[in-house]
Amino acid sequence: MKKTKTILSALTVMAMLVSVPASVFAADSVSLAAGKATAKAGESFSVDITLSGIPSAGMSILDFAVNFDSSIITISDVALGAVGNTGAIEADKDTGDVFTWSVEGDQLCLLWTTGLTDSQYWMKDAASDVFVTITGTVNASAADGSVSPLELAPVARETYPGSGVTNTKMVAGYIDANNAAVYYDINATNGSVTVGSEAAATLYGDVDCNGKVEINDVVLLSRYVAEDSTVKAPSAEGLLNADCKKDGSIDADDITAIARYLAHLIEASELGK
Question: Which of 89, 93, 133, 191 has the most CB atoms around its CB within 10 Å?
Answer without folding.
Answer: 191
